[in-house]
Amino acid sequence: MLRPGGRIAYTTIFVAPGLSAARRRRAQRSGPRAVATRSDQQGLLASTGFADIEMVDLTVEFASTARAWLAAWAANEQELTALESPGVFSERQRDRRAQLRAIEDGLLRRGLFSATRPT
Prior knowledge:
Elements: E1 7-15, H1 21-30, H2 41-47, E2 51-57, H3 59-75, H4 77-83, H5 88-104, E3 108-116
Antiparallel strand pairs: 1-3, 2-3
Helix pairs in contact: 3-5
């Protein structure tokens, strides 16, 4: 349990605010399941009583990491394919490319959120 006056911090991937319904659906399909929520992180924190809510945008780093994952998996495709059921490696790479495109198109973001539990 977080003590009064204590701070919480976490990173999460989320759908960029202000998207059209079609772009929101694309973001939700391209990101992890957790992005399907319609609530924004700052609103969720505020609704549970947290204060001094801050967000540091880590989207640039997120995109860089996604590119590195794709490259590393591709560089080891032969070995990784041998460990999976047929087609799984290709499917996962396709999903990773879709996520990277969604990041680059401004649909998915990553943020470091922090907030204080009131005293």
